[in-house]
C-alpha cells in the first residue's frame, strides 16, 4: 500500500485559522464560529476597531479587544450597561463591572469611586471629587497590544466618524517600526530583515522608556486613588447599615421586654394603676358625692332617758337636729336606729372629723349593718316600701362615701 503523500487524494483538506476568534476550519470566505469575513477590507475594519478594552461575552470567549472609541459607541447603543463586565487599561486588565471602571462609569452616569449619580459630561464627581479625566495614552493607546495604526477605509474618512489619534511613542519590541509604532503583525521577512540590519535597535529608547514609566506611575496612582475612594465609600455604606440594624435590634428588644417589665412592676405601682379605675368604676355605679341627707320629720322619742327604748321600726330621726358628736347634749346613738346613725355618720364624714382610717373602718361597719338590715327588710318586713326605699338610698350614699375614703387613702390627699 503506497504511503499517502502531500499531493495524494487522501491528504487532509487545507485548514484555516480565523484571525478574529482562532477557530480552525476549512478554507472559506467567512468564519463559521464568529461570522467574520476574511477579505482584506474586513480585516482592516477589524484592525481599526481593535484595542485593549475587552467585553466579557461567554458566547464569544475569543473575541478580540476593542478600542475606546468602539467601547463608547457600544455604550451609546446600549450594548454596554452598568452591569456589563469589562477590563482594560484603567482596570489593569482585571475584570470589573462597568459602573466601577474609570473612564467608562461616567459615560453610564455613575462615579467609579463612590457609585454616585453624575452627568455624562462631568469632569469630576460632585460627591467625592473623583476625577474623570484620565491620561489619554491610557485610554486611546492601541499599540500596547502591537496593533498597527488606524487607516481609514475607502469611502470612510477618519476612524468610523472619529478623528484618528496619533499614537505616542512606545517601547520597541520584536517587530519593525511602522510610522513610529511597533506592530506584532509584521511578516517573518520584515523581522529577519530587521535583525540583519546593523545597529538595529532592540530594546527601549531612553526617552520612550521614561514616558512609559511615567505613564505607568500615573496609572498606578490613579488606580490606587480609585480603589481608596471605593473602599471608603463601601465602608461608609456598611457602617450606616450597621447603625440602622443596631437601632432596629434595640427597638425589637424593647418591644419584646415590655410585657416582662409590666409583670415586674411593684405591687404599689400595680395598685396605682388599678385604684383609679376601681374608684372610677365604683363612682360610675354609685351615686355622686353624697350630699346632706334630707330632713325627715319624725316624733321625738317618748322618753329622754339614756336607756329609753328605740322608736318604731319605720320611724326615723331628724338628723339635722342632732348636735355634733362630742357636744354635751349628744343623744345616745347606740340606742338609735341604724338609719339615724348612718345619717349622723354621713354628716361627720362631710365635716372631715377624725382620722382617715377610723372613718373608713366606721363607714365599712355601718355599710355592712345597713346591707344586713336591707336584706332583713326584703325578707321579713313586707309592707314597708317607704323605709326600704330610704334604706336603699342610704346604702348607696354610704357606698359612695366609702369609695371616696378609699380614694383619699390611696392618694393621701383629702
**How does the major sheet shape up?**
3 strands, antiparallel
**How many runs of DSSP E, i.e. beta strands?**
7
Percentage beta strand: 5-15%
Structural class: mainly alpha
Radius of gyration: 54 Å
Overall helicity: 40-55%
For the largest sheet, list the strands in their spatial order. 3-4-5
Uncertain segments = 7-11, 165-186, 194-205, 270-294, 296-334
Can you put this structure into words, describing what you see?
With 414 residues, the protein is mostly helical. Among the domains are: 234-266; 268-298 and 313-325 and 332-411, no CATH class. Helix content is 43%, strand content 6%. The chain is built from nine helices and seven strands; from the N terminus they run ββαβαββαββαααααα. The protein has a three-stranded antiparallel beta sheet with strand order 3-4-5. α7 packs parallel to α9 and α8 runs antiparallel to α9. The longest helix has 58 residues, at 206-263. The chain is rod-shaped, with a radius of gyration of 54 Å. The chain starts with 14 loop residues before the first strand and ends with a helix. The model is unreliable at 7-11, 165-186, 194-205, 270-294 and 296-334 (pLDDT under 50).
Amino acid at each position: 500500500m503506497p504511503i499517502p503523500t502531500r499531493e495524494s487524494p487522501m491528504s487532509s483538506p487545507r485548514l484555516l485559522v480565523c484571525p478574529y476568534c482562532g477557530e480552525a476550519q476549512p478554507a472559506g470566505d467567512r468564519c463559521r464560529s464568529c461570522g467574520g469575513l476574511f477579505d482584506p477590507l474586513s480585516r482592516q475594519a477589524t484592525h481599526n476597531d481593535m484595542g485593549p478594552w475587552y467585553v466579557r461575552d461567554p458566547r464569544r470567549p475569543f473575541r478580540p479587544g476593542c478600542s475606546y472609541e468602539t467601547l463608547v459607541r457600544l455604550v451609546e447603543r446600549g450594548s454596554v450597561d452598568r452591569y456589563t463586565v469589562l477590563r482594560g487599561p484603567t482596570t489593569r486588565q482585571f475584570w470589573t463591572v462597568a459602573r466601577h471602571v474609570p473612564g467608562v462609569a461616567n459615560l453610564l452616569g455613575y462615579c467609579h469611586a463612590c457609585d454616585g449619580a453624575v452627568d455624562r459630561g462631568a469632569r469630576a464627581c460632585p460627591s467625592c471629587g473623583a476625577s474623570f479625566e484620565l491620561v489619554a495614552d491610557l485610554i486611546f493607546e492601541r499599540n500596547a497590544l502591537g496593533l498597527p495604526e488606524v487607516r481609514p477605509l475607502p469611502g470612510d474618512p477618519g476612524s468610523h466618524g472619529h478623528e484618528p489619534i496619533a499614537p505616542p511613542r512606545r517601547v520597541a519590541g520584536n517587530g519593525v517600526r511602522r510610522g513610529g509604532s511597533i506592530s506584532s503583525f509584521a511578516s517573518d521577512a520584515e523581522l529577519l530583515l530587521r535583525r540583519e540590519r546593523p545597529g538595529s535597535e532592540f530594546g527601549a529608547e531612553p526617552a520612550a522608556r521614561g514616558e512609559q514609566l511615567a505613564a505607568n506611575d500615573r496609572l498606578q496612582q490613579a488606580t490606587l486613588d480609585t480603589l481608596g475612594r471605593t473602599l471608603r465609600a463601601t465602608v461608609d455604606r456598611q457602617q450606616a447599615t450597621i447603625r440602622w440594624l443596631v437601632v432596629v435590634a434595640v427597638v425589637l428588644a424593647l418591644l419584646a421586654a415590655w410585657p416582662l417589665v409590666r409583670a415586674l412592676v411593684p405591687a404599689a405601682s400595680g395598685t396605682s394603676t388599678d385604684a383609679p379605675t376601681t374608684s372610677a368604676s365604683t363612682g360610675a355605679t354609685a351615686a355622686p358625692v353624697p350630699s346632706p341627707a334630707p330632713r325627715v320629720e319624725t316624733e321625738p322619742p317618748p322618753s329622754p332617758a339614756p336607756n329609753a327604748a328605740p322608736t318604731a321600726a319605720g320611724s326615723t330621726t331628724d338628723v339635722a337636729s342632732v348636735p355634733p358628736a362630742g357636744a354635751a347634749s349628744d343623744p345616745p346613738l347606740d340606742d338609735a336606729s341604724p338609719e339615724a346613725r348612718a345619717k349622723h355618720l354621713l354628716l361627720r364624714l362631710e365635716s372631715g372629723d377624725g382620722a382617715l382610717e377610723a372613718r373608713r373602718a366606721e363607714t365599712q361597719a355601718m355599710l355592712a349593718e345597713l346591707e344586713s338590715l336591707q336584706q332583713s327588710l326584703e325578707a321579713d318586713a313586707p309592707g314597708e316600701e317607704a323605709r326600704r326605699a330610704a334604706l336603699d338610698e342610704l346604702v348607696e350614699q354610704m357606698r359612695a362615701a366609702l369609695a371616696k375614703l378609699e380614694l383619699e387613702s390611696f392618694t393621701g390627699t383629702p
